[in-house]
Amino acid sequence: MLNRLRDWLCPDLGIDLGTVNTRIAVRGLGVVLDEPTVLALERKTRRVIGRGAAIGKLARQMVGRTPDSIIAVNPVRHGVITDFELCEVMLRYFFQKASRQGGGFRPRCVVSVPSEISSVEKRAVYNSVERAGAGRIFLIDKARAASIGAGLPISEPLANMVCDIGGGTTECAILSLGESVASKSIRIAGNDMDEAIIDYLRQHYSLRIGRPTAEQLKIDIGSAAALDTELSSEVRGLDSISGIPRKAVLTSEEVREALGECLWKIVNCIKASIEQCDPELIGDLADTGLTLTGGGALLRNLDLFLREQLGIPVRLDSDPLSTVARGTSICLEHLANWQQRFQTEGAGF
Ligand SMILES: Nc1ncnc2c1ncn2[C@@H]1O[C@H](COP(=O)(O)OP(=O)(O)OP(=O)(O)O)[C@@H](O)[C@H]1O
What we know:
Blueprint: H1 2-9, E1 13-17, E2 21-26, E3 30-36, E4 39-42, H2 57-60, E5 70-73, E6 76-77, E7 80-81, H3 84-98, E8 109-113, H4 119-131, E9 137-141, H5 142-149, E10 160-165, E11 170-176, E12 179-186, H6 190-205, E13 207-208, H7 211-221, E14 232-239, E15 245-251, H8 252-275, H9 279-288, E16 290-293, H10 302-310, E17 314-316, H11 323-333, H12 335-338
Parallel strand pairs: 1-8, 8-9, 10-16, 16-17
Antiparallel strand pairs: 1-2, 2-3, 4-5, 6-7, 10-11, 11-12, 13-14, 14-15
The structure holds adenosine-5'-triphosphate.
């Protein structure tokens, strides 16, 4: 009875604390919050503007458009917390939005983290989530959460490979019999693709553009392999020689060239995790293939490109942006059975 009241007043939460976006799932309800991982602050006082409400979507609208007195801060970089205080403020705000929280109860939380972060970095996630209002906290590797969210049969004696390409990290893992048998994580992902487009325009067009414009170009005309009909887009920026605003037309072939280095690093990350694997399991991958998750996996023709480079089937999850959060939510439903597999304070780090 008390447990049911507790569940009603304060449901368990699954959290994907991402570099670009934070998603929260409530046990039994799925993903209920999807907000950018950003806060807008008054520069002098470092107080969140809008009476503490300029967090997430509202703050994101301000990125690159703020006057000097206001700054937009992202408290997570490459999946690692870089500003503990702000991360705690942001999470407390998101918890309140995501659940009704009452009766003095604190929600149990399953939180996804990159696989190759240090124990100090894991503790930072643990402490921030705890101070934001969580009760018991369980950490799970992002790639494992992604494989669960994508519905891969990871408990079977068969290799299943997943690659989550987010904004700040690419996480690749091969799982069999419920355990990770190989994994590799690199701090290259969607944000680095945006930076590569910024560099390309600076070098080839002497044009300076901001991060949001670069991201939009990537989404609008970016691709990893040739398109049936190539695309183009007009881009506005600042001429770095004359110092006045100017337009240029960028093609999808040019964006592909700009993204080349990032894409090869991702291919090498996937190959490195395959190389760690037993040959028997590598054989399975010819059938089970690779499942792509994370926002970066939405790049056009990435599945085609990876299929060509790796020689195995590649499929994109049906809703790659929310796969990890869905995975944490499934973990909540099986918390009693699975909790010894999660990392908890004192046990896993
Ligand atoms: N259609 C698209 N094409 C290419 N990239 C996209 C597309 N949609 C979103 N992205 C990119 O996906 C990234 C965000 O993905 P996601 O929300 O999974 O990352 P995250 O969880 O915040 O990051 P991380 O897991 O690395 O900490 C951004 O870089 C964004 O530009």
